[in-house]
Amino acid sequence: MSQWVINGIRAGIKTTAYPAKPETAAGVTPGLPVGGDYPANNVNSLISLCPTRVFSDSDGQIIVDRRRCIHCYRCVRGVERPVNWEQSYEWGTVRDGQHEFGQPFERSIHICVVDAGDCGACLNEVKQLNNPYYNMHRLGFFITPTPRHADVLLVVGPVTDHMKFALKKVYDAMPAPKRVVAVGACALTGGVFAESFVCAKGVRDVLPVDVEVPGNPAPPLAILHGLLVATGRKAPAMKDADPTNLHE
Amino acid sequence: MDTPTLISIFFALCGAGILLSLAAPPSRQGNVLAWLGCLASVALVLAGANALLAGKTFSQPLWTLPGLAATLTVKLDSLSAVFIFITGLVLFPASIFAGSAPASGAAGRALAVGRDADGQSNVSESLARSVRREGAPNSSRGGCAPQNRAFTVFMFGLYASIAMVFLAGDVVLFLLAWEAMSILCWLLIVCAREKEIGHAGSGYLLLATGEAGTLAAAMGFLLLAVAAGSLDFGAIKSAASGLSAGLQWAVFLLSFFGFGVKAGLVPMNFWLPRAYVAAPRAFVPVLAGATLNLGLYGILRVNADLMPAAHAGPGLLALVVGTLSALVGMLYATTDNDLKIMLAHSSIENVGIVAAGFGAGMVFVATNHPALAAIAFVAALYHLINHSLYKTLLFFGVGEIEAQTGTRDMDRLGGLSKWTPLTALAFLAGTLSIAALPPFNGFVSEWLTLQTMLRSAELSSTGAKMVFALCGAGLALTAALAVTCFVKVYAMSFLGMRRLDENQKVSEAKSGALAPMAILAALCLAFGVLPTYIIPALDTATNPLAGASAADNLVPPFFASNTAHNSLPPAFVEDFHNLGAQVGQNVLPGRGLVVLHRGGAKNPVVFAMSTSYMIVVLVFLLLLTYVVIRLWLTRSRKLERRLRWDGGVRNLLPEMTYTATGFSNPVRVIFDAVFRPTTVEDTRETVAEHFRTAIIREKERVHLVDKLVFHPIRTAVMWFASCLARMHHGRFNAYAAYALATLLVVLVVFLLFQTS
C-alpha cells in the first residue's frame, strides 16, 4: 500500500496537459486528410480512392468532408501522390450560425451518453475520457446516467431504427437548455452503415446537433475538444466549405 | 354517571348483543354487531376515561366461591382503566367495520395456494413465482354483513371477556376471563372458514400456544397466591415483597413468557402470523388491536404491579427479549410481501418495543429511579395505545384491499390510490404513524422510548448500562427498518403502476369501512399532536407502578406562562423558560413535550420538543415550499411538463417497475445471516442434455423462530404422540389386557396403602 502511494508520487502527473497546452504525444490522433489544391493529382482518381466519399471536386480544388472520414488511409498509403494529412485533433465544429452556447454551459456540465447503435469503437473512446490520462473530471465534465440531470447529450452511433425512439425520449427528458454532441463518423453521417434499412444517416436526422466531432472513432482528445467547444472554452475548428449538399 | 354503572351497561349491552344476534335473522347480524358493539364500546371508553381522568376507580366483590376461599372481585384501578379505555377506543371502529364487512374473507384463498398445507407463513421465493399466481379466485364482495350468527355471538362474548380480564381483581376471575377470551378467539377464527385447509390448524396452534402460556401464567399466579395465602390481587400484592429471590424469578419467568405468548414476544410468536392470516378480516383488527394488549397487561400487572422486581435482572431480561422481538419482527415485516403477514410481524415488533419499555421501567424501579421508571412506563403504555390505534387502522385497510382486489401480495398490487383515494389517505395516516414519522402518534411514543433508553446513563451498574445501550441501538435500528418497511407497503400497494388484472374492478370502500378508518386516522393524529394532554392521564396509571409521577418530567411547566412550580429549582426553570417556546402559547393547545436530563448544575441538558408547534411548523414549511416553488422559482423559468423518464423504453409495463420484493431485497441481503435461507432445490429444465432452457432455484425462507423453537417443539410433540399411538392399534384383546392390567395395578396399590 505504501509502495503504491510512493510509486504514485514518483510517477508524477501523467494526465495530458490539454487544453492548457497542446498535446504532443505520439499516436493521440489518427489524423484527417487536408483539402486544397492538388495540381499534380488527377482529381477524379483521388475521389474514387475514397470508400466513404470524403473528397469532392470544386473547380479543381479538392474539398474534404472530414465528417465522413474513417481513417482508412487509402488516400495516403500505397498511392503515388498522397493527399496531405494533418495530425491535429481539435476537430469539434458547431452548427452553422451558432458559436456561443451561453452562460449555463460555461462551467461544469453533466453528460448523458447514448449509444445509438455504435459498433463500440466510439463508445470505447468516450470511456477513455474517464481514465487517468484524459481525466475529464478535472475539466468539470461528468457522466450521468439519467437525462434528467444532463446538460449535454453525447450520441455515438448512426442511430439505428430501434434506438431512434429511445434517443428522442432521452432528448425530451432533458431539461432545457440542452445541447447535443454527436461523436464519430457514424453519428455525423451514418458512416459505413450509411442510410440503410436499419439505420438513419446520423443524429441530425433525429435531433438538432450542436457540436460535431468527426473521426472513426474520434480520438478522446477530439471528444474533449468537442465538449470544450460545447462549453465555450475552446474555439470550434474551422469548417470546410459546407459539404453536406454536395453529395445529396 | 359513575364507573360501575358504565361497566354494568357495557356488560348488559354485550348480553343484549348475544341475545339479539341469536334472535335476529342472518341479514341483520351486521346491524346488531355495529350498533350494539358501538354502544358497548362507548360505555367502555367512558368508564375508562371516568376512572382515569376523574379518578373514579372502584372495587366490588361479586361472589365468594363455595369451597374455595376465593372471592370473585371486579376491580377497576387506573392501570385497568388505561387498557379498558384503549380497548373501547379500538372496539368502537372495529364494531362498525365488522358490521359492514363480510365475516369470511374468502379472497384470502388466492394466497393460500402459495402457503404450506398447514397454513404456515413459509414464503417460497421462487423465480417461477408467477406460476402459482394464475387463477386467483374472485373475491367475495357480495354480502356486506357477517352472515354468520355464531360470529356475532362470539364477538360479543369476546368483548365481554376482554373487558373482564382487565376488570378482574382476583386470580380466579382473571383466569376464567382469560380462558374465555382464548377460546372465543379460537372459535372466531374457526367459525368463519372451517372448510379451508390449513386454517383450522392455525386456529388450533393459536389455542394450543395460548393455553400453554395460560398454564405458565397460572403457575406463576399460583406461586404468588400460595405465598399470599389468598387469591385476591390486593392480598397478593402486599405479600409479594416477602417472596424469596428464587421464587420471584420463577414467577417472573412464568408470567413473562406465559403472557408473552399472547402478546407475541419472541420465542413464542410463531402462532401470530398464522392466526392473522387465518382469521376472518372482520376479526383481525380486534385480534391485533385488543387481544395483544391482554398479554402486555398480564406482564405489567404481575411484574410491575403485584410483584415489583426487587433487582434489575428480570427487567433487563424483559428489555432484551423485547428488543429481540422488535428486531426479529421488523426484519420479517420488511421482507414479507403479504400485507397481513407483514402487519403480523410488525405487531410482534411493536409489542417488542412496549415490552422493552416495560423492561426499562422495571429496571428503573428495581434500581430506585422512580421518576425514570414512570417515564419508561408512560412511554411503553403510550406506544401500546398507539399500536392498537394504527394497527387496527392498517388492518381495516388491508381487509378492504383484500376484499377489493382478492390479493394481499404487494407484488401484485400497485396504483390503488387512483381508485381508492380515501382508503389510501387513511392508510397513509396509518403507515406514517407506524413508521414513527411526525406529526403522528408513533413518533411521540418511539421518541419517548428511545429517550428513556438514553437516560440509562443514570444507572450505576456498567453491565446494565451496556444492555441499555445495545437495546437502544437495536430499537433505533428497528425504527429505521420500520420506515423502510412502511414506505414499501404504501408505495407498492397504493402508488406506482397498477399491476392488477384489467378486469378486476377496484372502487372506493363503502362508508361502513371508511368511517372506522377515518376515526382511527383522526385519533392517530390527535395522539400525535396532543401528547401533553394524554401523558398526565397515563401518569395516573403509572404512578402506583413507579412510585413517582412522570408528569413533572415529561410535561414540565417550561413552556407555560408562569414559572412557579414546586418540584424544579427556580434557577433551573429560569434557564429554560425563556427559550421562546412559550410563544403563541395562548393560541396553540398543548405545551412542549420534554424528557428532562438535568445533568450537572452547570450543564443542564433538556431534550424537548413540541408536537403542537411541530405540526404548525410542518404545515408552514409545506406552504412555504409551495409558495417558493410556485411563485418565485418557477416564475422566471419556463415550466415544461414531460413524461417521466423510464429508461427510454417504448412502452413501460407494470412488470418493469420496482416490485416489493426488489424494494426489500437489500434488507434481505444484508440480514442474510439472520434469515439463513436454505436452497431447497435447483430444477434444471432441459430440452436435450447440455441444452438448458431454465434453472429454477427454489429458496425457502423458514422463520428464525420457527426453525429454532417451533419445529423442535413440533417434532417432539409428534414423536411423543407417535409413541402413544402405538398403544392405539385397534386390537380388542390388547385393550382388554390394558383394562386388566390397570385393574391389577389399582388393586395392588389399594392393598398396599390399606395395609400401611
Can you describe this structure?
The complex is a heterodimer of chains A (248) and B (756). Chain A has helices spanning 2-11, 43-49, 121-128, 161-173, 185-189, 220-230, and strands spanning 32-33, 36-37, 55-58, 61-64, 85-86, 93-94, 109-115, 141-143, 152-156, 179-183, 211-213. Chain A is α/β, with parallel strands linked by helices and 248 residues long. A six-stranded mixed beta sheet of chain A has the order 6-11-10-9-7-8, sandwiched between helices. Chain A has a three-stranded antiparallel beta sheet with strand order 2-4-3, covered by helices on one side. Chain B has a domain at 705-755. Chain B contains 27 helices and seven strands. Chain B has helices at 3-23, 29-53, 78-100, 109-112, 129-133, 149-167, 171-192, 199-228, 233-240, 245-263, 271-278, 284-306, 312-335, 339-366, 370-405, 421-434, 441-454, 462-494, 511-529, 531-546, 551-554, 570-577, 611-633, 660-670, 672-675, 704-725, 732-755, and strands at 58-64, 71-76, 123-126, 593-597, 605-609, 678-688, 691-701. In chain B, helix 1 packs antiparallel against helix 2 and helix 6 (149-167) runs antiparallel to helix 7. Chain B is globular, with a radius of gyration of 28 Å.
